[in-house]
Amino acid sequence: MRIREFDEADWPRVWPIIREVVRAGETFPYDPEMSEETGRQIWVERPPGSTVVAVEGHRVLGSAKMGPNRPGPGSHVATASFMVAADARGRGVGTALCEFALRWARSGGYAGMQFNAVVETNRSAVELYGRQGFAILGTVPRAFAHPTLGRVGLHLMYCEF
Q: How many domains does the chain have?
């Protein structure tokens, strides 16, 4: 597996991953009925941000997007999001994408990385981020409408560099 910059030709292989994750409604606060056009606008970052793909041969296993968390006075803190194909989970793809994003942010001079809305029941992500040095700063109770668990909390997580 290798991680490389997103190329326009990757979109037909990235969109099914995004669509699958978003329609499941368990981990991202995006509209489950999100259109492909909206998905592309949300996922493909413009500079100074970046979008990457994790590939194995010609197969896209996952993708990440990263950039400033906020504009202006908040632009020194980065953020990132990760999506992995269902059949590629548990193989270290998410870890590799997270490590890539952290290296990207550090090399870009960011002061840290903030995740604004990590669903508390997404235990694999919460544990992965903890292993990478993120701390839970707080949890907004019942802020995410999970399709089977009802309203669950959203964590604000931060890793200072």
A: 1
- 109-134 burial code (b ≥16 CB/10 A, e <16): ebebbbbeebbbebeebbebbeeeeb
Q: What is the pTM of this model?
A: 0.95
Domain that holds residue 111: 2-160
Tens of pLDDT, residue by residue over 37-85, are 999 999 999 999 999 999 999 999 999 999 999 999 999 999 999 999 9
pLDDT digit string (tens) for 127-138? 999 999 999 999
